[in-house]
């Protein structure tokens, strides 16, 4: 693989930042990786893991002379990072991010971006419930989607260059507007996490009633929820606060549909229950079938964690 950028600055070195570092190094996509993170302890750990070539707790310092800057911090920290780096960005540099919400990240970062840099918001649809620099691993982005939500001024050449970067990591790149992204992700990613946090919380509240049986007999269905509910609280608090409208809209729909199911159960309406379960089963099957081609790599293949 060839060098695509001379110097890449990674701002934030948790699960996503460190996975990027592994792949950038493995594939030789740059001459120099600069790692920046707020906490000195995290930075020290990143250094022990050999994730970069240079390390600093100053994001402003890290972006000097970098031609690609990737911001991988909780979405609520986007504005403070943008303010910190704005004065030291070199003309022509590409600034991108990996945040799970897009309209809010654009609102937080774009006003601070100088006119002579290319700001391209992005979101790789790949991850796990783990966080921190130890959580990253090579190949996380392989076969996964990376969605760009370009802003009106986005330069086509810069877009093509960034697309080439994600494709080198094995990702498939798509583009959509930020509002659409936030709605789609609210239903396919944010709601499942919120539901998981909620059901595990409810089970925990019931623990006093059931005297530990929740943990003792937790079957695989419940365990699947506990994986999602073990995800990073800071990241997911920020997602909830920064995709508020779309999440509330999807939660309202979800609650209505749940009330329909609740009613069908109460009144013994087996045909309604059966019809719904048959419809959803068909959806899962069609996704699994699609998983055999490159359009749905999340399914029909082991989760990255299964390889470990
Ligand atoms: N975890 C996932 O599955 C996943 C998937 C796709 C996208 N994302 C998005 O990627 C971003 C990072 O998530 P992650 O899972 O790598 O989180 P993480 O908690 O593993 O890492 C976050 C990193 O950001 C650093 N940080 C926090 N505030 C900072 C600041 N002000 N300045 C500099 N560094 C700061 C932390 O020290 C840490 O190194 C989030 O916006 C998240 O929404 C996460
Ligand atoms: O696989 C997981 O554990 C994830 O939560 C990854 C996941 C998702 O919901 O699919 C989580 C948040 C992201 O922004 C993108 C991907």
Give a structural overview:
With 308 residues, this protein is α/β, with parallel strands linked by helices. It has two domains: 5-176, NAD(P)-binding Rossmann-like Domain (Rossmann fold, 3-Layer(aba) Sandwich), CATH 3.40.50; 180-307, 6-phosphogluconate dehydrogenase C-terminal fold (Orthogonal Bundle). 51% of the residues lie in helices and 13% in strands. The protein has helices spanning 15-27, 40-48, 59-62, 78-86, 103-109, 156-168, 178-210, 213-216, 220-229, 233-242, 244-266, 270-290, and strands at 5-11, 30-36, 54-56, 68-71, 94-97, 118-120, 122-124, 145-148, 172-175. Helix 4 packs parallel to helix 5, helix 7 crosses helix 9 and helix 7 packs across helix 11. The longest helix is centred in the middle third of the chain and has 33 residues, at 178-210. Bound molecules: nicotinamide-adenine-dinucleotide (NAD) and prephenic acid. GO terms for molecular function: NAD+ binding; prephenate dehydrogenase (NAD+) activity; prephenate dehydrogenase (NADP+) activity. Residues 6-295 form the Prephenate/arogenate dehydrogenase domain. This is prephenate dehydrogenase. Pathway: Amino-acid biosynthesis; L-tyrosine biosynthesis; (4-hydroxyphenyl)pyruvate from prephenate (NAD(+) route): step 1/1.
Salient structural properties:
308 residues, alpha/beta, Rossmann fold, 2 domains, six-stranded parallel beta sheet, 12 helices, 51% helix, binds nicotinamide-adenine-dinucleotide, binds prephenic acid, prephenate dehydrogenase (NADP+) activity, NAD, NAD+ binding, tyrosine biosynthesis
